[in-house]
Amino acid sequence: MNLMDFGALLGSAPEEVLSNRQLKSLGKWTRHRQSIGLPESRCHSKEAGVELRFARGIGLELVFLHSEGHEKFSQFRGELIGGVTFATDRKALRKKLGKPTASREQIEDSILGIMGAWDGYLINGLAIQFIYSPVTGSIEHVIIEKPGTRVW
């Protein structure tokens, strides 16, 4: 399963997504049920390096693909896009994918601490955000969503 395969699942109900053969083959999934009053639920596979967020009335809203060790996940083993890997830094990503649609430099938040820079691209009907590690400068995780959902 590669990054673009997740695009076809966006908007689908949790049961439909979690019964997807390709997704099931990635590893064991843990589902976190929606708490009363919260508009979202999540599920993840730490071993596959994938986290999914579902929103009430929307279905699958966001897909997070993690690098090795990010939030205690194993690295997502599928293909990202255009020869990009988690070892790719910002300069190399921009050389491969061109100028981003949106971007932000690294910032320090008083509550969250240092937050890495990111670049966002609209590619084949998907909004794809590459977040860089503030330590190494390489890609730390990737967020996939439909444009107009929450985009940057």
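Second entry:
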Amino acid sequence: MKELKIVKYPTITGILFVLLSISAVAVANEIQMSEFETESAITTSSLVAAVSIDSNSNMDKQLSIDYELPQLQHLRFTYINSQSYQSDLDTIQYNFGVSSSLYELLAVSGEYQYWGKKGALETRSLSTELSLNLENWSFSITPQINIVTFYINSRDVNAFDLNSFSTNYSVSYYGWDHFFISANYYESHFKNASFLLDRNRDSIQTRLSRRLSLTTKTLASGLEHSRKSLFASYLFSRVSISAGITKSTTSIIQSESTTTNGSLNYPFTQQIDLNFGAGFQTYSEISGGIIFYDIGFTYYW
């Protein structure tokens, strides 16, 4: 039998790159000092394009759009295409979201997310974020409902679903000059997920799981159970730098990973920022680790 490998879910390098880019923009928006207010700080619609590669020859290509409506509400779209050195593990992710004004005391947003590979494993999620924005603090809670579809090779049925409920908690502080810090905690609860690797249990789902392909099980191995992260950004006169650390565990095989990364945001013009990033990811079951690099740009209007 082939070895069950661990995959990133959803694409961790792409997500961390987006978060660090957002952190850099948040610093510019929250630190309201005239000598540091660039065009990036006072415009509200943006487009992000980025590419990430790692030492295992995996590649993520990402496009994100954040469009501000007349009443300061925002529409958001993100697309990430992840290409693996094993072609059967290629996945896509897209998000559609809408939010109230980011500057309101109480802000609300909603988002739909799809991730996976048709015919192997697919996840569909619906979330609502509630945020409290104070002078120097921001608090948010994001409950999320997830449906995970497993495709199988069976005469009677070709797929079955697992449901889960997850919550993300976030707190951010902007009170220091030029400095921003944010902490996040995410936890997801899958019902009866352990049957996927437990062949001693006699149930309909266990018998179905024996027909799961290696691709499906490999993708499922990356479904997250919990994630803790800490991000920080510092704004210089023009350049901002960001750094973060993330620890996560998976739902099914309880694998642990640690990711440390950093990024640099440089305002190339009044409307274009260049973004560069790098990081290192380790797994509890695998010796060594994965090095990844990111490059992209943000366009504001």
